[in-house]
Each structure stands twice: as structure tokens, then as C-alpha cells.
Design a protein that fits this description.
Helix content: 40-55%
Radius of gyration: 17 Å
Low-confidence stretches: none
Strand content: 5-15%
Distance between the termini: 31 Å
Shape: elongated
Structural class: alpha+beta
Length: 103
């Protein structure tokens, strides 16, 4: 997901501090959700072994289902980001999402 470990004394209010036996050991700074979406798309592309835009329609639909389950479309510009990665229009991504809800 692209998190970063930082010393616990440098943790801000948005960071997650991890403790061991009552002692703060490390803090984790999580990326913004929009950055996480880019990481998720890159990981999916690596797993497929080729650009997501090169996948067939069924594979793209499966990618959209997976991303929806992971909350990708709650991110601002999530549909646009996914559409760009898949090489399709926003309208197509919405069609994939609506098709699943109708089934």
C-alpha cells in the first residue's frame, strides 16, 4: 500500500503508532487514498504481467469488481483513474459497476 515507517516521536495525528509491551516502537504513515489507488493498480498490472489496458473485457470487468470491493471508487477521481489505467472511458467503468449491481 505504500506506507512508510517513521520514529514514533515523529508521528502526526493521522499516523498509526504501534506499541510493544506498552512502549511505542514505530509509527506507520499511510499514504493518501488516491496514492494507494495508484499502488493497487500498479500491483494489479504486475500480477497480470502486462498493462491493464491490454486485458480483454472480462478481465477488465473483474478488475473493476475487485477495485470496487477495495473501495477504489470512494476516492476522488477514482473512476477517472481506473478508466485511464484500463484504457476505457469513465462511462465504460460505470457500465461495469452498474452491470454488477443489476446482476
Amino acid at each position: 500500500m505504500g506506507g512508510q515507517m517513521i520514529p514514533p516521536d515523529e508521528a502526526g495525528p493521522e499516523d498509526v503508532v504501534l506499541a510493544w509491551e506498552g512502549v511505542d516502537v514505530v509509527a506507520v504513515r499511510l499514504p493518501q487514498l488516491a496514492d494507494s489507488l495508484d499502488h493497487i493498480l500498479a500491483a494489479m498490472e504486475r500480477r497480470q504481467g502486462r498493462p491493464l489496458a491490454d486485458l480483454d473485457r472480462r478481465a477488465k470487468q473483474e478488475i473493476v469488481r475487485t477495485l470496487e470491493a477495495r473501495g477504489a471508487f470512494a476516492v476522488r477521481h477514482g473512476v477517472e483513474t481506473v478508466a485511464g489505467a484500463l484504457g476505457v472511458s469513465r462511462f465504460t467503468v460505470y457500465n461495469y459497476l452498474n452491470r454488477d449491481k443489476g446482476a
